[in-house]
């Protein structure tokens, strides 16, 4: 090998290693007691716990399971609490930023296409870069700057701004999870996405949690749903680092994923991760190390024999967060998703005619989320989507804070 080739390999390895070290360094912000306290002040902890406990009790009453122990009860309620935390973060706390509104006319702005220099205040608040926007409605074609979108890296700052894209969402949600004492990983996908994993004591495994999508334990979402061509996915916690790529790729695609992993040598990556992990765990007790080692072994078994392979891609849609144009440009939405085809056909059977007569009326109750026939309470189907043949720009929306349920247009709908 030539010196030039060897130099290129070493440069790539050093660059990759520095990225990993940067991710490890950033995670320390989530462990800061003051940062966690700031996050706790924003979370309606008691309300979320009550909802989780009520759902658990409802499930127990329905199943009459007498074998549930106190420890298992607590861990299962924690899983339900995680789901409520995801929902609250998505629906009530954080907002998605496509483009900032014009401060003069409040209409959407247009990006200028260049990065601005952070101001002193923006730098103080950890903005690594600033996107600049103009308003064609106010300044015409002069391309004058009217709005700025600082890309903040400090999760405490994000607790105040409460807006951003996937980077800000995962950053802030990771801090919130740690503040709620969930064992948490910040996950970075080299194809430009980030999310969180949380360890479930009830299920004894790491759960995929995407706050942007309000999705939990759907690891094949990105590859089979969004159509991502995955390569490297690295997860960082307070005392561990792991290459979790194989959790998020169907085994049928592993050879293709391996072919795309050409930044560094696989053996080098394994050795590097093991060295970084050893350094991160050097101050831990032997008991804690043993726990982490057992989890590591179980996780490697999961990668070799993935249960997620049983999931079919028919239930995994394209990306939901962000504008339709933004998702299409990033190739994270299927064109078919713009018009959702469910393919269900209502069929009139002889039993229906004999039971309800020749005049049949099917109707949908959005509150109960059931389809009924005539004026009876006989449920034909449950779930809005289950009774559809084709749908465009319509969704069932739940407003929990207002106790309202209704059918509405999707937020991306352009027509009146």
Task: Walk me through this protein's architecture.
It is a single chain. The protein is α+β, with helices and mostly antiparallel strands. The chain is built from 14 helices and 18 strands. The strands form six sheets. Strands 9-8-7-6-10-11 form a six-stranded antiparallel beta sheet. It has a three-stranded antiparallel beta sheet with strand order 2-3-4. A three-stranded antiparallel beta sheet has the order 13-14-15, with no helix packed on it. Strand 17 and strand 18 form a beta hairpin. The chain is globular, with a radius of gyration of 24 Å. The chain starts with a helix and ends in a 7-residue tail after the last strand.
What is the approximate shape?
globular
**Straight-line N-to-C gap:** 64 Å
Can you count the beta strands? 18
Low-confidence parts: none
Question: Average pLDDT across residues?
Answer: 86
| Share of residues in strands | 15-25%
**Helix/strand class:** alpha+beta
| Biggest sheet details | 6 strands, antiparallel
Q: Mind telling me the C-alpha Rg?
A: 24 Å
Strand order of the largest sheet: 9-8-7-6-10-11
How helix-rich are the residues, as a percent range? 40-55%
Please count the helical segments: 14
